[in-house]
Every structure is written in structure tokens, then in C-alpha cells.
């Protein structure tokens, strides 16, 4: 007979015997199996949950370990409502979560066991390093180029300048890194990539991206300071890189992109994403920052693009928000591939795109010579996106 036991505790253990597999399977967080010293059969790619084989572990030992991990509390027999036909941890967790949600006896706190994000003091420490002043200085520096338009003989002047800035910043870092110009076939402007090579799983990549180019005027080549669109997102990434560059390498590879030619039709990111797809690159998730400086719905009221983005990544950002920030986040549809996240999404990668406000309340001065630092722009608001990207990068290093 199949048996399902749910431990009602801070962290849940669901165990059931399955004749089909001829062994005792348990679904719990990985620490639990490590403490028991039993083999992990399958783990969830994002949550800290796994299936372990607990055959041979006595009920007494099970209780001992549960208590030693501070997860006291009773357990409840749930009957055999979960079918164990095959091991599919993602599906099984989804089923379990909806079962728990339906079950009036299970409190919200107990449901938290399936939440992806747990507070980590080290992340909080790094978040406290975000400097609003640095954002201001960098946006000012970028708008002073006059334009970062992707066409024309001066298209790479600001790109080369950013490359030099990153080189100076990384010179004192202990992280193995690369700074590369990426040329494109459809624009003469180069994209820039800064790579922090992962120390444990370098093939797994997390990507933070922002478009670096700007545009204004009938033919695109007018005065285009592009402070909000998108010196802001570009500067958010420079600040994340500055902070992380001072510490040890991440376990997984972290890539920062400043894309060329977004305003010409997502040119740089489209070429890059299709190249990744054809090389079978393993990208865990991509965050796009495009326009973070104008608080159209009010300071610290963020938007988040709901189309061409991936539900689990959007949820992860919401959970990070619950744990570290408590900003308000409103999802909205662009209705088209409005920025570089769409290039990655179209190639099958998981994406998220936080945005300065909802679409209806966004900055109306973009793509004009008026998109320069002005009183309605808010660097504290923009710093919220730096923090979100920083927390996202650190969290994705572990999932
Ligand atoms: N910063 C905008 C993107 C944007 C607009 C994001 C509205 C979210 C909401 C971007 O630089 C841009 O101008 N995109 C173009 C489309 C692109 C394919 C040329 C646009 O929205 O017209
Ligand atoms: Zn734009």
C-alpha cells in the first residue's frame, strides 16, 4: 500500500513507500538527506528539494534527524492521494503544493516550505553596498557621450570607454574574468561581455543584461543622452559587477552583457542568443534591465514584463522581493518583444525583465533629447533594480 506522510514542520518531509520502486522514497530538502547520509535520487533544479532513498533508515532515526535539524512538530497521514508512477520531482512538487493549498488544515507558514528563497545574511551584506551615488555618476558619464546610437562612425566610442572602465575595475579582482567585445553582422556597434568564471559549475551560466545603445530623432542619430533608456540599466549592471568583483568567484558562471543595437530591433541580443542556442549553452536564467530611473508609479513601485518572460523566474524575483525588499511589483504586458529578454525567450531560455513602472506610466521622454537626468528621475528608485539584480545573481548561483 502506498503511504504518504507529511511532516507539519518548518521544513517538510513527505515520505512514502513505493512498491513500484522497491525502495522507500522521501521528498524533502537536501540537508535532510545529507544529515541522514542517504543517497539523493533526484533533485529539483530550482528548489532545495530532492528525492532520497530512505530504505533501511529506522523511523526512530528519521525522527532524531528531523528534530536535530530543528524541525519538530507532528506529522499527518495524507492517504494515498499522490500517485508515484515515476520520479518527476518538478511535477510532484507542483501536485503537492496544490494539494497543500487545497488543504485548509495546512497553514500559510507551512506552505512556505516550498518557497524557493531563504534569507541569506551574505546577500543582505552585499545589498547594503549598493551606492546610489555610483549610479548617478555612471548615468551622467554615459549621457555625456551625447549619443550611443548603434549606427555611424562613433558607435563604438562609448563601448570602448566602458570596456576600459571595466578593465580598470577588474584589475584588482581575484575572480577569473574575461572582458570581450562581441561583433555583430547586422550592426557595426559591438556588444560587451564581462564574464566571472564559475569556480564549481562553470558551464552553468546566469546572465544579467542591459542594452547600451540609445536613439533619438527622425533618423535615430540625433542628440540621444538615453539616461533612462538605457544608461540606467547599464549602470545598474556596472554597480552589481563592481560589488561582486571584490569577493570570491561565484560557483556558476555569471555573465554581464551590455548589448549593441537594441534600438535597431534587438540586434545584438538576437545574434548572441541564437549563437548560444546553436552551441547548446546552458543558461539557467536571464535578467534584463531596461529603464529603471523614472518612478512612473511612485518610488519603489516596480513593473515586471509578463510577456516573453518565464513564470518561475518572475516568481523567483517576487520571492526575493518578499524576503529582502518588500517593493510593490506590478506585472504588465508589453504586447511585443520590447527589449532584449525577448531574444533569449525566443531561443528557449528563461527570462525576467523588471521595469521602472507599468507600461502606461512609463517615461514619455525616451528616444528624445530630453531623456537626460532631470528632477523626475530617481536614483534611489533605480538602486532598487541594482539590488534586485544583485540578489538574483547570488540566489541563482545556488539553485
Ligand atoms: N526601453 C525600451 C523598451 C521598453 C518599452 C521596455 C516599454 C518596456 C516597456 C526599448 O529600448 C525600446 O525602445 N524598444 C522598442 C522595441 C525594439 C524592438 C526596437 C520599442 O519599445 O519600441
Ligand atoms: Zn528604447
Describe the 3D structure.
With 399 residues, this protein is an alpha/beta fold. It has two domains: 16-101, 2-Layer Sandwich (Alpha-Beta Plaits); 107-396, 3-Layer(aba) Sandwich (Aminopeptidase). Helices cover 34% and strands 20% of the residues. It contains twelve helices and 15 strands. It has helices at 30-36, 59-68, 89-102, 108-111, 121-127, 132-143, 157-170, 227-244, 267-278, 311-325, 341-346, 379-396, and strands at residues 5-7, 14-18, 23-29, 40-43, 49-53, 75-77, 177-182, 191-196, 201-211, 252-259, 283-288, 301-305, 328-332, 351-352, 354-355. The chain starts with a strand and ends with a helix. Residues 1-13, 15-21, 72-85 and 107-113 have low confidence and may be disordered. The structure holds ligand BES and zinc ion (ZN). Ligand BES is lined by residues 229-230, 262-263, 265-266, 290-291, 334, 337-339, 355, 359, 362.
Could you write a compact summary of the structure shown?
The protein is of the alpha/beta class and 399 residues long. The chain has 2 domains: 86 residues, Alpha-Beta Plaits, CATH 3.30.70; 290 residues, Aminopeptidase, CATH 3.40.630. It is built from 12 helices and 15 strands.
Amino acid at each position: 500500500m502506498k503511504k504518504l506522510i507529511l511532516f507539519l514542520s518548518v521544513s517538510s518531509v513527505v515520505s512514502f513507500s513505493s512498491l513500484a520502486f522497491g525502495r522507500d522514497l522521501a521528498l524533502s530538502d537536501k540537508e535532510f538527506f545529507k544529515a541522514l547520509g542517504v543517497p539523493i535520487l533526484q533533485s529539483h533544479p530550482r528548489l532545495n528539494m530532492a528525492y532520497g532513498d530512505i530504505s533501511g533508515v529506522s523511523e526512530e532515526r528519521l525522527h532524531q534527524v528531523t528534530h536535530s535539524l530543528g524541525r519538530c512538530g507532528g506529522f499527518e497521514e495524507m492517504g494515498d492521494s499522490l500517485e508515484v508512477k515515476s520520479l518527476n520531482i518538478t511535477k510532484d512538487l507542483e501536485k503537492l503544493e496544490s494539494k497543500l493549498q487545497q488543504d485548509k488544515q495546512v497553514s500559510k507558514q507551512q506552505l512556505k516550505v516550498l518557497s524557493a528563497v531563504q534569507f541569506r545574511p551574505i546577500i543582505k551584506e552585499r545589498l547594503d553596498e549598493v551606492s546610489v551615488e555610483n549610479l548617478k555618476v555612471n548615468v551622467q558619464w554615459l549621457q555625456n557621450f551625447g549619443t550611443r546610437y548603434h549606427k555611424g562612425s562613433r558607435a563604438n566610442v562609448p563601448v570602448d570607454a566602458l570596456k576600459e572602465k571595466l578593465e580598470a575595475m577588474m584589475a584588482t579582482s581575484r575572480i577569473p574574468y574575461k572582458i570581450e567585445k562581441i561583433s555583430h553582422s547586422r550592426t557595426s556597434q559591438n556588444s560587451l561581455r564581462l564574464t566571472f568564471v564559475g569556480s564549481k559549475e562553470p558551464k552553468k551560466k546566469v546572465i544579467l543584461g542591459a542594452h547600451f545603445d540609445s536613439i533619438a530623432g527622425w533618423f535615430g542619430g540625433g542628440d540621444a543622452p538615453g539616461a533612462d533608456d538605457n544608461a540606467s540599466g547599464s549602470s545598474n549592471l556596472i554597480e552589481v559587477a563592481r560589488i561582486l568583483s571584490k569577493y570570491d568567484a561565484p560557483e556558476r558562471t555569471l555573465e554581464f552583457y551590455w548589448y549593441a543595437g537594441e534600438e535597431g530591433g534587438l540586434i545584438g541580443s538576437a545574434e548572441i542568443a541564437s549563437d548560444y542556442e546553436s552551441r547548446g549553452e546552458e543558461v539557467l536564467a536571464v535578467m534584463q534591465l531596461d529603464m529603471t530611473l523614472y518612478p512612473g508609479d511612485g518610488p519603489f513601485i516596480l513593473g515586471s514584463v509578463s510577456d516573453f518572460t518565464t513564470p518561475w523566474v518572475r516568481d523567483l524575483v517576487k520571492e526575493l522581493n518578499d524576503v529582502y525588499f518588500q517593493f510593490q511589483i506590478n506585472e504588465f504586458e508589453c504586447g511585443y518583444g520590447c527589449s532584449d529578454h525577448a531574444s533569449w525567450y525566443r531561443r528557449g531560455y528563461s527570462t525576467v525583465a523588471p521595469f521602472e513602472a507599468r507600461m502606461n506610466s512609463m517615461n514619455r521622454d525616451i528616444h528624445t533629447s530630453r531623456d537626460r537626468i532631470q528632477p523626475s528621475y530617481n536614483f534611489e528608485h533605480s538602486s532598487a533594480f541594482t539590488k534586485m539584480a544583485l540578489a538574483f545573481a547570488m540566489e541563482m548561483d545556488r539553485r
